[in-house]
Design goal:
Layout: E1 6-12, H1 15-22, E2 29-33, E3 36-41, E4 44-48, H2 55-65, E5 69-74, H3 86-103, E6 108-112, H4 119-129, E7 135-141, E8 143-144, E9 147-148, H5 155-164, E10 168-171, H6 178-182, H7 187-205, H8 208-211, E11 217-219, H9 226-239, H10 251-254, E12 258-261, H11 267-277, E13 282-283, H12 293-302, H13 307-321
Parallel strand pairs: 1-5, 5-6, 6-7, 7-10, 10-11, 11-12, 12-13
Antiparallel strand pairs: 2-3, 3-4, 8-9
Helix pairs in contact: 1-3, 3-4
């Protein structure tokens, strides 16, 4: 397929991190039975088939979908779930991602993870990762082992990212709505989307985007439900004064400071985002290996967008945001 695409959300489980998880006696941990790996995080148990760890499968999937370049990231659990081993977990993940990108320099860049439970170690790891020109941003989990990412201990990262011009890419962690969404297998469909929704709303109403207006923030999955609820948030903040911050503008206005990936199977949702947010803030993403890249690709193509708009959504916006070479 002769269509240049850049995938802004694609994951691998990394063998070095899996080995660290194998060594743990408490969650998060890996359990192996009859050759099947499962990741245990409280009542959230997920299978890890071999191809979730296989770079060659990732490349073949990219080729089949027409993806030129992938911004590769690890899967959760993030380093904060490892407690005192967090700095080690972060470095294992980041070294592995850097090695994959170095081995396939025309196909991969990568996003680093940081042990944000330890600000000193996290800042040092960020500085180390910045030495690799193929590291293009920070994967910031929506919650850090139960603490929302907008909370004061993590504000230094927004300040540093704004200073460096380094994108912060949100990604769901183990959902804080886990118990509410487990019973009917709704964690992936709703729990993760509520993570996006709540984390992004909190970032907006916290005033972080007023304090760091140049920060490059990316929210996955079209912001969860927030674009559909933003009118209600406007009313709550502006009319009912239900906010502890004096924001400089309406919550709706901040959405146009944020980038959103379009990982969804529904073309109508992408069209709504184009109308509400503008096409210049939208990025193609697959959420592979959880979702086949062709799912989002085909949703975009069904819209039959003007050629220039489609090209920007599939690759051009990402190329500019992450400063990728042509």
């Amino acid at each position: 397929m002769n269509r240049a695409m850049i995938d802004c959300q694609s994951h691998l489980f990394l063998p070095a991190v899996l080995e660290l998880l194998r060594q743990r006696s408490e969650d998060p941990r890996i359990v192996e039975q009859n050759g099947q790996l499962t990741l245990h995080m409280d009542s959230w148990v997920r299978k890890i088939p071999p191809h979730y760890c296989d770079v060659s499968v990732k490349l073949a999937t990219m080729d089949a979908a027409g993806i030129e370049l992938t911004l590769l990231s690890t899967n959760d659990p993030g380093p904060e779930w490892f407690g005192a081993d967090g700095p080690r977990a972060a470095q294992l993940a980041n070294v592995a991602l850097a090695e994959i990108a170095a081995a396939h320099p025309t196909r991969f860049c990568w996003l680093c993870v940081l042990p944000l439970q330890d600000a000193t170690a996290a800042a040092a790891e960020l500085d180390r990762c910045r030495q690799d020109p193929r590291m293009k941003g920070v994967l910031l989990y929506t919650n850090l082992a139960g603490r929302w990412c907008d909370e004061p201990p993590f504000e230094w990262l927004f300040a540093r990212a704004a200073e460096l011009g380094l994108p912060l890419v949100l990604h769901p962690a183990k959902p804080l709505t886990l118990q509410a969404t487990t019973g009917h297998e709704l964690v992936g469909a709703l729990g993760n989307m509520f993570e996006d929704t709540i984390a992004l709303a909190r970032i907006i109403v916290s005033g972080l985007l007023d304090r760091y207006p140049t920060v490059k923030l990316v929210c996955p999955h079209l912001g969860g439900a927030l674009p559909f609820l933003i009118g209600r948030l406007d009313h709550q903040v502006l009319v009912l004064k239900r906010s502890n911050q004096q924001l400089r503008q309406a919550p709706r206005a901040y959405l146009r400071q944020i980038y959103f990936d379009v990982a969804t199977p529904m073309a109508e949702t992408i069209q709504f985002a184009i109308d509400l947010l503008g096409p210049e803030r939208l990025l193609f993403a697959s959420d592979d290996p959880w979702v086949e890249p062709t799912v989002t690709r085909d949703a975009v193509l069904r819209l039959q967008l003007p050629a220039e708009m489609q090209s920007r959504l599939l690759a051009g916006n990402a190329r500019e945001l992450f400063q990728l070479s042509s």
